[in-house]
Design a protein that fits this description.
Rossmann fold, 2 domains, 5-stranded parallel beta sheet, 3-stranded mixed beta sheet, 41% helix, globular, binds adenosine-5'-triphosphate, binds magnesium ion
């Protein structure tokens, strides 16, 4: 007789073993083409979970390059890695949610109640003030769209931005925020005012800072700027090589550029690192389309699988879609969705009469999107130069 098999309890790794490269590997399952930024984020996360001062991070970069995606993936990590469960009190919010625009008041308690909800669901039962505060003080706070809180917008003073930056900089430096809520006192839930210290929280802020590129470009190319500009060889659509001026924000960006953009120096001084998101090139766009968790292909696959159809996208077709998406580089990876939707909608609408469905040996149906199909659907010339 064998003893009944009891599943072994999951062995939790000590937190020090979740080293930055381990966290990096986990994060890049959902964020592609942002290696340098993910390295900085993984290091900050590692410090945070091992009880050091993590240092706050500001993510800057064009729309659709993955800033909000990084925030969502940190949350995923906290949810999926059992070792990180104690850190699940996390909030992702837009900067403008933290201000009462009519009264021009900073409202940190909105952030705190979001964290409180998480802390409560982590604890899973009515909690004492000490238990709640302990979890909340380890929170990770992601504040998105911080570029919308510039001190001036369109040449006009933006009072909301000033209030927000002042409020946030105090919080990030470490302050005490009060929160009125119910907690267990002698086994009974009673209203109390909690004092939550923000010094041990990790802040990750993000913003596209639209217009910054042009602003820095003007500064660098001004006749008396004293900056050296670079050139690079590029191959044109005709296959010929030519020399082109190369301008990458990362080559010239200085903190002062953000001051001119309308960010308060004292606010920026609270960040230990400013990370510039990489622009997504053709190869990364293709990878996001094929392997991104939230890619339009993944969503469409889920839709077809509900209909009992397996959707495949061949490699050439994926390249062609990425190439079309790259033409609208301002939208970053979001333009993949625009292009993909245009070509997949007719198939999603009526796959049965598309002529694309093939029965497989196991009885399921398969639809393969080929480059030919993409060209036809998008009205591209049949022999487009690639
Ligand atoms: N680096 C990336 N890796 C994987 N997916 C990405 C990446 N960048 C963008 N995406 C996909 O593109 C979409 C938009 O990305 P995201 O919301 O992260 O952009 P953003 O940088 O926050 O842009 P914005 O400044 O406009 O808010 C998401 O659906 C996401 O899945
Ligand atoms: Mg975003």
């Amino acid at each position: 007789m064998h003893a009944p098999q009891v599943p072994a309890p999951a062995v939790l790794r000590p937190l020090v073993e979740l080293a930055p490269p381990v966290l990096h590997t986990e994060l890049r399952k959902g964020v592609l083409g942002q290696e340098d930024v993910l390295r900085a984020v993984s290091l900050a996360l590692y410090k945070h979970i091992t009880g050091r001062v993590s240092g706050h991070i500001l993510l800057m970069g064009s729309s659709g390059t993955g800033k909000t995606t990084i925030m969502g993936n940190i949350q995923r990590l906290y949810r999926e890695l059992p070792e990180l469960a104690p850190f699940r009190a996390m909030a992702i919010t837009n900067a403008n949610m933290l201000v009462d625009a009519d009264r021009l008041e900073f409202r940190p308690e909105r952030l705190l109640s979001a964290i409180e909800q998480r802390a409560r669901s982590l604890l899973g039962r009515p909690a004492t003030a000490e238990e709640l505060v302990a979890v909340m003080e380890r929170a990770t706070i992601c504040i998105d769209e911080v570029d919308k809180m510039a001190t001036a917008v369109g040449g006009k003073t933006n009072p909301v931005g000033i209030v927000l930056q002042q409020g946030l900089l105090t919080m990030m430096e470490g302050s005490v925020v009060t929160l009125r809520t119910n907690v267990l006192v002698n086994g009974q839930e009673q209203p109390r005012t909690l004092e939550v210290r923000t010094g041990g929280m990790m802040f990750l802020c993000g913003g596209a800072f639209e217009g910054l590129y042009d602003q820095v470009y003007s500064r660098v190319t001004a006749p008396d700027s004293g900056e050296k500009t670079f050139s690079q060889m590029v191959r044109g659509a005709d296959g010929r090589l030519r020399i082109e001026a190369r301008f990458r924000l990362g080559d010239y960006f200085k903190m002062e550029d953000l001051y001119h953009y309308g960010m308060v120096p004292q606010f920026l001084a609270r960040f230990d690192s400013v990370q510039l998101m990489a622009d997504l090139d053709l190869a990364v766009l293709k990878e996001i389309l094929l392997f991104g968790n939230d890619s339009p292909l993944a969503r469409s696959r889920a839709y077809f699988s509900m209909l009992g159809v397996r959707l495949e996208l061949d490699d050439l077709a994926a390249g062609l879609i990425a190439e079309q998406a790259l033409k609208n580089a301002r939208a970053g990876a979001r333009s993949l969705r625009t292009v993909f939707t245009r070509l997949i909608q007719p198939l999603e609408y009526d796959p049965w009469n598309s002529g694309l469905l093939q029965p497989l040996a196991d009885g399921t149906l398969q639809a393969v999107i080929t480059a030919e199909y993409v060209r036809l659907a998008l009205g591209l010339p049949a022999s487009a130069e690639r």
